[in-house]
Amino acid sequence: MAEDSEAHVADAHDVIRVIGARENNLKNVDVEIPKRRLTVFTGVSGSGKSSLVFGTIASESQRLINETYPTFVQQFMAQLNRPDVDGLENVSPAIIVDQERMGSNARSTVGTATDAHAMLRMLFSRLGQPHVGSPQAFSFNIPSVSGAGAMTREKNGKSVQERRSFEITGGMCPRCEGLGEVSDIDLDELVDRDKSLADGAITIPGYSVDGWLVRIFTESGFIDPHKPVKEFTETEHHDFFYKEPVKVKVQNMSMTYEGIVPKITKSMLQKDREALQPHIRAFVDRAVKFQPCPDCGGTRLNDGARSSKIGDVNIADAAAMQITDLAAWLDTIDDPAVAPLLATLRRTIASFIDIGLGYLSLDRSAGTLSGGESQRTKMIRHLGSALTDVTYVFDEPTAGLHPHDIARMNRLLTQLRDKGNTVLVVEHKPEVIEIADHIVDLGPGAGRAGGEIQYVGDVAGLRASGTVTGRHLDDRARVKDTVRTPSGAIEIRGATRHNLRGVDVDIPLGILTVVTGVAGSGKSSLIHGSLPDRDGVVVVDQAPIKGNRRSSPATYTGLMDAVRSAFAKANGVKPGLFSANSEGACIACRGLGVIITTLGFTQTVETLCEVCDGSGFSDTVLEFRLNGKNIAEVLAMSAAEAADFFPTGTVHTTLARMIDVGLGYITLGQALTTLSGGERQRLKLAISMAKKGVVYVLDEPTTGLHLADVEAMLGLLDRLVDDGNSVIVIEHHQAVMAHADWIIDLGPGAGHDGGRIVFEGTPADLVAARSTLTGEHLAAYVGA
């Protein structure tokens, strides 16, 4: 039995070992991470935390798992490239829980994303009275269809005709096709009825009087182009607005004529709104009005699905309940025939409550969830899992959480660890750093100035380490001695969106206002539901920036046009020559900088283009210089370096704003797809900062910011206000609350326990009163 007293060789693999990691800005990083422990990765924004955790460890784990599937299955899976690392040892299967918002598909809800709605459908198909069918009869994604006809088949050498019929009973509302809302186009946003077509009656972007889009109407023969729209006959009105596609001759050319409504529906309204150009998107937002479907009342379900009830509750009622109420209703059902199903459904619903999402409802559209809510919703699948010895990877799990809720998140992280899992967390909040078993601090700076291990060890050692994180770990802001005086106010009256209870509030102008409250108290519903449609309001949220691998900060901010013009002027050539997407592209890689080799069902291989050395530009273009640099060298500069290179002009102004928002480390040619959620928001803020005298609405601008960077963000908010703007911040960070001129606190709880204003006043008054959860936590933070 000597074997028992010695460590088994299988127990020797107790650390994840990373050897020579070079992904993105990592500089040959070697590090050992203990398994079955909670490890927090810290460091300033852009220091390389995500590159190490997500881009190296988690990515390689997923790639290795994918390789275990048959090649037939692999061809349908995302092809992951091997990260740039010399070696990874003892990697366990990784489950990634990131902040990417859940799909904005209009058919996706909280219930469908977590399978809770599928179990609810099963429950109603078994117990609902009257019985209307299988679970698909309660699905708003399945329409009811039926059909019949004759079919011919061979039987004993003869053709035999048989009559067949089929019927599918679905739950989809036929009016709105399961979307819960119908769109109505405001015709007055399409045309000026007092004008004729020849005088420019059509007000749709791109429809100029002398353009082909309008000439099809004026020369079709269906409409008098010189008659004001308001004087159209009934036939002309129908032909102009709604006529079905027909062929017409316009200047001896055969063209398709159709009414203006179906025409713009196809060209603009049926496209992804986020992919539209800004001026087209603004037009669509004005022209299309959405309202709850009158047939189903917004429930998405047809009459049959809504007629079947358990007691006096139908499935639409159950899905609309706040999840805490749904849990109580499920406890009233006691039927041995569905006991296993009920047990699973109750566990899932309990997970919502445990994770702090009990204020949601299952019919809530997944696209309306914040990044933090999306991340916590994804966690629900894993809380009750029997899996162990897996690696859970979290990206700022406290994003969107009030200080009151962070303790609950910390309990969940430690529960996952205590089940024998490895938990890796990228985080900036001191409250999470404090519970870590192990810390890996990266830095010392961001971008090229980062990518190195600064400290590895416990929290006490981090405090004494002298690193940027260690020095700022105990930073505490203090409440301002004096606050600004408002110059006016935006009045909100009777706000009832989501859980708001007829809220009346005056939001002061000309100062820094912070709107706070526990998660689910109604902050976003109040601000985003009341302010964005007003003139002079600039909303900077964390919605992902649309872009691909060819998009970069230079193209997104509009810098690239000015840079190309500067090169063209200095060299006497066309600006288009300095675009890697057109004339200046390398002929071998077509401007990508890499050669992509598709190997069928195995992973795609990317190799650096040997012709252009990864620049994406042709040799001819790289010979042209501006102040001694070629276009590739300029795009490789960080924003801070480029600001010195372009000391004046619009380029310098935009770069200075990028530096102000803490993005001086980002290179101009970096792919947009590599930016974090916080970096995207700050990039959008940098673009918007050019406007003066407006109302800025910022949604948690400290997301993704290191403790050392929060002070710089506060300075930026002050400069925006001092320049004559009004700044409204939805935020949980106590440093931002303490720095505010005015605080609006919602609560007291979440869901139907919130939706009310529980405090309005200065931070000092909130600390002194300690009458709300926010007041208690802010008082503790400032040491009052």
Quick overview of this protein structure:
InterPro entries: ABC_transporter-like_ATP-bd, ABC_transporter-like_CS, P-loop_NTPase. The protein is 33% helix and 19% strand.
Structure description:
By secondary structure, the chain is an alpha/beta fold. It contains 30 helices and 27 strands. A 6-stranded mixed beta sheet has the order 5-14-15-3-16-17, with helices on both faces. It has a 6-stranded mixed beta sheet with strand order 21-24-25-20-26-27. The longest helix is centred in the first third of the chain and has 18 residues. The model has no long low-confidence stretch (mean pLDDT 87). It comes from Microbacterium aurantiacum. Keywords: ATP-binding, Cytoplasm, DNA damage, DNA excision, DNA repair, DNA-binding, Excision nuclease, Nucleotide-binding, Repeat. Pfam families: ABC_tran. Its main location: cytoplasm.
End-to-end distance:
62 Å
Question: Uncertain segments of ≥5 residues (pLDDT<50)?
Answer: none
Strand order of the largest sheet: 5-14-15-3-16-17
Q: In one word, what is the shape?
A: globular
- The tally of beta strands, per DSSP, is 27
Tally of DSSP helical segments: 30
Mean pLDDT: 87
Helix content: 25-40%
Q: Could you describe the largest sheet, including whether it forms a barrel? A: 6 strands, mixed
Relative strand content: 15-25%
Q: Give the radius of gyration.
A: 30 Å
The secondary structure category is alpha/beta
